[in-house]
Specification:
four-stranded parallel sheet, globular, alpha/beta, homodimer, about 240 residues
Chain lengths: ~240, ~240
């Protein structure tokens, strides 16, 4: 039996979401003993230049930093890469171009998971950073599978962003979870047939129990694809 | 202000304990924003040769693997190293000899934390793997601060080992937590003034609420020392 692939994780955006992703990989791995688990190489670097400032033209592009991180993970032994942050997928092409190993794309994993979770859903409620929304990452990916992302008005989008910053600041208690459930209710009331947590901070305070329609976590979608891929070519 | 130090983590022994350690570092870091957190480079490698088999002379020494892991983390940018596994500290000297950066020793961190948590305690109840016990890691370190580790009889030590394997297999539910509390009660009943979780799987199912005397987690003790050290020379 050949070994499973070594998984490199570009992380730190933010760190709580990174460890949640790693734990989700662990939970989704079919394993009876320690030795059955995947080897993960993780660079949790909160010093990646701010994606939101870059989008607004107020800071440097994170692309060179992310490409250097990706190459360092490959140098350390990663056979496949992934990144536990949706917004940073604005720079996914730069990462793909910068390394010779596969990059498992969180946006694609999430869209495919949403199609599986709600095969008949036409309208998607997206909870993501304002930068992810403005970059159109999910709108483009869902359009390719004939689905429409329901736009949030500015006030509701600001509430999502406020929630994400609370989680990034370490607040994940019941008060913040109640806010998350309230925020998730609105797109469902407005006609969304599936709620997509297109930001890795969201699943830290929201799960399917808080939603009126099927809920898809980008963290879990990527973790499942990573596990499947890492074990796929064991012979 | 100079940047905080980059922390390299030798992990995967087991992986659940590794992510728990990383989350504990996060929790103990004074931070208001994502950017305030430490950069962690983590190699979570469940393929490190089995420490228990090596101790029994039935498998290869993990030392070369751990030294290679340590060097790779330094090559990737780590300024300081630590290892989220007590038993593997049998090979701490090999790691220290193999790299030129500081190695923060989990056994030492835990002993110092136990002295702070229970300044007058003379007798220590140790919950650790049989290999850690047989290697005498904690007995030697506690002897240097004039404390005695209470020996467990073979049956009780086997129960601790069974608990650790349950946690490594992913079982951390209330049934396993109840067993952990029961196990922790026995050394306290036998005269221990402090309970030390000298295995990183134990704090996943036991905390101070489950103990009759002060409880010290090796995971938390190491994480606190890592945070203190990483920020110590920011000027």
């Amino acid at each position: 039996m050949s070994r499973a692939k070594v998984v490199g994780v570009l992380g730190g955006m933010g760190p709580a979401a990174t460890w949640d992703f790693c734990q989700t990989v662990l939970r989704l791995t079919p394993a009876n003993t320690e030795q059955d688990h995947l080897r993960l190489l993780v660079d949790s670097d909160p010093g990646v230049p701010d994606r939101h400032a870059a989008m607004r033209g107020e800071g440097p592009s994170p692309a060179p930093h992310l490409v250097a991180m990706a190459r360092s993970l490959v140098d350390a032994g990663a056979d496949v890469l992934c990144m536990a942050c949706n917004t940073a997928h604005m720079y996914a092409d730069a990462i793909r171009d910068g390394v010779s190993v596969p990059f498992i794309d969180m946006i694609e994993s999430t869209v495919q998971a949403a199609v599986r979770a709600a095969p008949d859903a036409a309208t998607v409620g997206l909870l993501a950073t304002t930068t992810t929304v403005e970059a159109g990452l999910y709108q483009a990916a869902f359009a390719r599978v004939d689905r429409t992302v329901l736009p949030l008005d500015a006030e509701r989008q600001a509430a999502v962003m406020d929630l994400i910053f609370r989680v990034k600041a370490g607040h994940t208690g019941e008060d913040v979870r109640a806010i998350a459930r309230e925020i998730a209710r609105e797109p469902a009331d407005a006609g969304a047939n599936v709620i997509v947590a297109g930001c890795t901070e969201i699943p830290l305070v929201l799960n399917e129990e808080g939603c009126l329609v099927p809920f898809v976590s980008s963290t879990e979608a990527l973790a499942q694809d990573v596990v499947n891929f890492a074990f796929s070519s064991r012979g």
